Amino acid sequence: MKKILSIIALSIAVMACGGKTNLETALIQAGDNRAELEKVLNHYAVDSLKYKAACFLIENMPYHYYYTGEEVDYEKQFFKMLHETALSPEVIADSLNRGRMSEQFGRTELKYDIREVDSAYLVHNIDWAFRVWREQPWGKKVSFENFCEYVLPYRVGDECPVEWRERLYDKYNSLLDSIRLKPESVFPWIVADALLDSLKKRSPRFVSYSYAKHSAGPEIADWLSGNCEDLADAFTYICRSLGIPSGCDEMLMRGDNNVPHYWNFVPDDHCDAFFCSLLYPGPLIQSHTYDAPRGKVYRRMFSINRDMMKMMNQPPEKIHPTFRYPLMLDVTDVYSDCEQTICIPESRFLIRPERDELIYLCLPSHMEWVPVAVSKYGNGQVSFENVDGNAVFCLSSYRDKQLVPMTVPFWTHKELSYFRYFGNGEGEERVTILHKFNLFIEPFIDRMVGGVFEAAMMRDSGQEILCL
Fold first, then answer.
1. Which residues contact 174 (CB under 8 A, 6 or more apart)?
2. Please, are residues 295 and 260 in contact by the beta-carbon 8 Å criterion?
3. pLDDT digit of tens for each residue in the chain (468 aa)?
4. CB-based contact 291:300 (threshold 8 Å)
5. Residues 195-225, buried b or exposed e (16+ Cβ, 10 A)?
6. Measuring CA to CA, which residue among 128, 119, 124 is closest to residue 147?
């Protein structure tokens, strides 16, 4: 809540700066830290390209923040122990939790980059990013735009900013010695493939268990341990330290499971990308051949998606937190060959939307709906472009700080754009459920053999409920 209120306060400051450039607005928001940021701009006044890079970072800094405190430092021990021991993540978490019983322990302090990051840190980051971009042979194939978004950023999540480029460069640069002199080293994705192969030989440790609430920071590149998001962060840090453009693509919620999913990408020459991950065997593959995506896929960005903000055009408190400050880009069409437009007419709404109300396309997760796309209601309908099907969706609005389902669930066929609505919100419909998700990812299939389902009827508030 503190984070949300602080960001809203910053947003009010942004709106009060109407008519100013993004850079001017950011400098106003910097407050007492403005002088530090202006030092950076003055430092690069005679180097037009580095000046543009500095502007890119500064004008997007208002949307980045981090936490400090004992809790944040303590969480890192989880990843370190995963790397150094063979203990299960549950055992490690139990051990750590016994040391965090104090009521004061969990307190963290929220800080904003725009008001905290100093000139020395930014100059060091920019100079090292330019060095690897210009010195490595694959830098010739990296445009300035891709450099700014996928090499230059000093952070990948909400970690505390620390210097990491030089240390990780010194640690991992030698892994590319064998390919650096080959003709194909001008292609970043080929170099990334060689890097990925070397890192996999170091036996990264994947666990599905999520312990930390905050990003682990650049140390995760040393430990190579954690869930899919943590390992994606690790590969991002290593790639960027070596001048290889990379980042994290994500499904906010899988259409075939109850969890989100994260992996890495390396852009190519054709505005496409190569899929890569420390979790998957084999070499890089072109993104459109990766068959896991369902619903929507987004690319994490350092820059704020101003087009999405302009489309929403709502006060921050009226926007669901997932899309309130969208540091993301919709790349569903990069992964799907069968993306479609979902158009829902007003007649299918159980609750009439308000004029220009934001409507969210949601996927199910356990007992809740998770928003994966946002659009605006208008002209008696709402439309969502570039949606990958073969999943069950529902439309919701965000009212009184909670999602409110606006339609019955519906299913879309991936190739045929076929819709099926599950009922009309009234009465009953008989269905046969074989399984909810793909069985190959179910860890409890073997336990079902010889199993028995038991059920009982109970009465609650005058209604009969079937309990399994």
1. none
2. no
3. 445 445 544 554 444 445 689 999 999 999 999 999 999 999 999 999 999 999 999 999 999 999 998 888 888 999 999 999 999 999 999 888 887 665 556 678 999 999 999 999 999 999 999 999 999 999 999 999 999 999 999 999 999 999 999 999 999 999 999 999 999 999 999 999 999 999 999 999 999 888 888 999 999 999 999 999 999 999 999 999 999 999 999 999 988 788 899 999 999 877 678 999 999 888 888 888 887 777 899 999 999 999 999 999 999 999 999 999 999 999 999 998 877 889 999 999 999 999 889 999 999 988 899 999 999 998 889 999 999 988 899 999 999 999 999 999 998 887 776 788 887 656 676 767 666 566 655 555 666 677 777 777 666 655 555 555
4. no
5. bbeebbeeebbbbeeebbebbbbbbbbbbbb
6. 128
Residue type, 326: P
Cα–Cα distance for residue pair 284/184, rounded to 1 Å = 15
Q: What tokens does 412 get?
A: 């879309």
